[in-house]
User: Fold this.
Amino acid sequence: MKTPALWSAQAHMPSIIDRQIRVVSAQGAYLTTDKGSRLFDGTSSLWYSNIGHGREEMAQVAYEQMRTLDAYHVFGRYTNDRAVELSEKLVDIAPMDNAKVILNSGGSDAIDVALKLARRYWNHIGRKTKTVIISREHSYHGLHAYGTSVAGLDFNREGYGTDSLVSGTERVEKHSTTAFAEAIERIGAENIAAYIAEPILGTGGVHPPQEGYFEEIQKMCRDNEILFIADEVITGFGRTGSMFASTRYGLQPDIVTFAKGVTSGYAALGGIFVAPRLWQPFFERNANAPIYRHGTTYSGHPVTAALALKNLEILEQESLIERSAHLEQVLSNSLSEIESHELVASTRVGGLLGAIELRDIAQAEVITDQLLDLGFISRPLRGNSVQISPPFISTDQEVRSLVEAVRYLLDDIQPARIRA
Ligand code: PMP
Assistant:
């Protein structure tokens, strides 16, 4: 039997081989497939097509940058105009004062660089036992070695012969400050480097923070000298109606990871913001200052940086973050109408991120497949939930229609259930 050359990501290959969806083009909030279907991008691809697809001005920026400087690295003494400009811009909008920026190629990269830096920092200041990383159940932090090891979705951590690829990781219940306190007690603050959390837990089912949760967690981090890392790979750059969710939820992180929305997906870029107390030792004008031995070939890539700068300019010029805040309200109103449906267990919304959690009889995977026939892309998330996270350029009606399409499909299941 012929099998495809491309080994798809996170896929049960035998199940998808005969039903792959081949996307050939995209414009605005819509994709076109090789079969000629036009589909509404109800998830912004993997939570990132915030400014929408197919922007001419983005293509133009990439073209012009390639003609000036196609690529050059930022190792050692080398830097380039776009990497410098982007870093200055990012520091301006960062959810912390006086930040530094490390650039790389995506969210998983950002997680590796953040967690390595947390350990490296404590090691440098002589607190060598502070190495354990605490994360939350149902969290997702990408799939490089650190992300795999801290994953709160167990299936992402299984099958590597050991419990985790990177040693010294622990998970705590996602909304429990008591669980965090117990973990600190059990492990010992002197052994803990950092706590990492998505401000809104994304792939784990879209769970916004509960009132007061992060406030208390941050206090415990401060009291126990544990670094607080906000993983804003999904929430950064306007997804929650402010530039960063850290601002919206009053977080004061020591490190923030970002990716996706920094370029709206037009190029592969991720990175981290680092707070002064962490970067200062590495910048001291002193021969004994340590080196953070991390870097990847495409860190500070000029074409990628030029695209990020243009993306940030578009967000501002078209007031798309305000638009995202507005669409959150539209989504929230639509979800409240479907919430009482017999087959809906609950709905959740935080920023322009929503989930419809279904009761057992209605399967999120089946609904997601059927939505395609109605022209909408969605995605099943953990906990039998349907993901809704459209581009910021979507119309109010498009957002409402997606929720209405889910209702239409649930209405169809309902009579069958009553007959049974
Ligand atoms: N952190 C979070 C919160 C994410 O949602 C993701 C990707 N969905 C990542 C990290 C990893 O990013 P990437 O896939 O770009 O490596």
Residues 13-54+319-419 form a domain with the Aspartate Aminotransferase, domain 1 fold (CATH 3.90.1150.10). The chain has a mean pLDDT of 96. Residues 259 and 270 are 4 Å apart (CA to CA).
